[in-house]
Amino acid sequence: MNRTNQIYLLKRIVTATVSLFIVSTAVFAITQILPGNAATVILGNEATEEAVKEIEAQLGLNRPLWQQYIDYMIGLLTLNFGISLTSQQPVMSMVWPRFIRTLQLAMVTMGMTVITAIPLGVIAAKERDSKIDYLITTSTYLGMSVPSFVTATLLLLVFTTGPFGFLPSGGYTPISQNVIEWLQRIFLPALSLTVIVMAYVLRQTRSSMIETLESKYIRTARLKGVGESKVLFNHALRNGLLPTVTVLAINFGWLMGAVVIVEEIFRYPGIGELIVIAIRNRDLPVIQAGVLIPSAAFIFANLTADIVYTWLDPRITMGDQ
Fold first, then answer.
1. Residue ranges of the alpha helices (H) in 78-227?
2. Which residues contact residue 106 at a Cβ distance below 8 angstroms, ignoring those fewer than 6 apart?
3. pLDDT tens string for the chain (321 positions)?
4. In whole angstroms, how far apart are CA 94 and each of 81, 97, 141?
5. How far is it, in rounded angstroms, from Cα 133 to Cα 129?
6. How far is CA 299 from CA 146, 292, 304, in A?
7. Dist. CA 196–CA 198, nearest whole Å
8. Kind and range of the H or E element at 162?
9. Which of 301, 298, 296, 293 lies closest to 270 in space, CA to CA?
10. Adjacent-strand bridge partners of 83
11. Which architecture, in CATH terms, is 3-34+79-320?
12. C-alpha span between 103 and 270 (Å, rounded)
């Protein structure tokens, strides 16, 4: 890696750090203006004002806002999000296992997307305007137009009941406990998300590959007698995948925040379900951690995409983005 690439990546790391700071501050501000009161949730609506003030003092909710913000930022730096206001458990012990489960679901979804969408996008580009191309592109419109809860419900009905009911309807099994059962339980939620993500990745792959295959250096390679398969895989694919990397990173971030409905349908105990419960109980530390950790994962995914960019095309610098 040359010095120009190193400077480019350093700037990206600084940008990611600043983005994380802005997101963390926004999360704190938004949670402070949420309606309701955690003390009232704990004691009930009929609690006396004295009892509510006592609980607020115990939880630190009566402290000045700036002091709460400083403690919040110090907690972020030490990965200590405090104690849950409702369960009195450490927030990280509640959020981290669920985040790992959601991350597993997102990673399986991205894996299924990559092994299906990219090859199909390349085939559609190579067979442009053919029946195969029309069939593939038409299927992408279907995947983009059907909401995730509809896809999830249909998959649940087809593959968990009746003659094709060979998969469990929901739940979660740790991968360390039983790999096969883990895969069986995560497959349908991942498939319902893959249908949507695959449509976007496939369309981007097809579009960028068509543009690459029509470029001058590809025409030159063909005129020199280079075989079509070598032109496709050795020359076109690497450059054609650059925009696809961006789409994959964006969709990974979308997955971290859009799995709530799918998790509910398949009773998958991920971070989305925890956030819904925390919002209902106005459990501020859990809400903050539940939103911030996936946001950090999204920022990290984009940083990873930038690193992959420089690997695919070392000529890229900050001015190219």
1. 91-126, 131-145, 148-160, 179-213, 216-223
2. 193, 252, 255, 256, 259
3. 567 767 777 888 888 889 889 989 998 888 777 666 666 666 666 667 777 777 777 667 777 888 888 888 888 888 888 888 778 889 899 999 999 999 999 999 999 999 999 999 999 988 888 899 999 988 888 877 888 888 888 998 888 887 777 888 888 999 999 999 999 999 999 999 999 899 889 999 999 888 888 888 888 887 888 777 787 777 787 777 878 888 888 888 788 777 888 888 898 998 888 888 888 877 888 888 888 888 888 888 878 877 777 776 665 554 444
4. 11, 7, 39
5. 6
6. 27, 10, 9
7. 5
8. none
9. 293
10. 90
11. Orthogonal Bundle (1.10)
12. 9
Whole-angstrom CA distances from 248 to 3, 121, 254, 300, 308 are 27, 14, 10, 13, 11
In the 8-state DSSP scheme, what is residue 86? Answer: T
> In angstroms, how far is CA 44 from the centroid of its own chain?
36
Question: What is the H or E stretch that residue 215 is in?
Answer: none
Of how many residues is the chain composed?
Answer: 321
Core vs surface per residue 168-190: b (16+ CB within 10 A) or e: bebebbeeeeeeeebeebbbbbb
CB 105 within 8 A of CB 186: yes
Contacts of 98 (CB under 8 A, 6+ apart): 269, 270, 271, 273, 274
* Joined tokens for residue 284: 């501020």
pTM: 0.79
Beta bridge partners of 90: 83
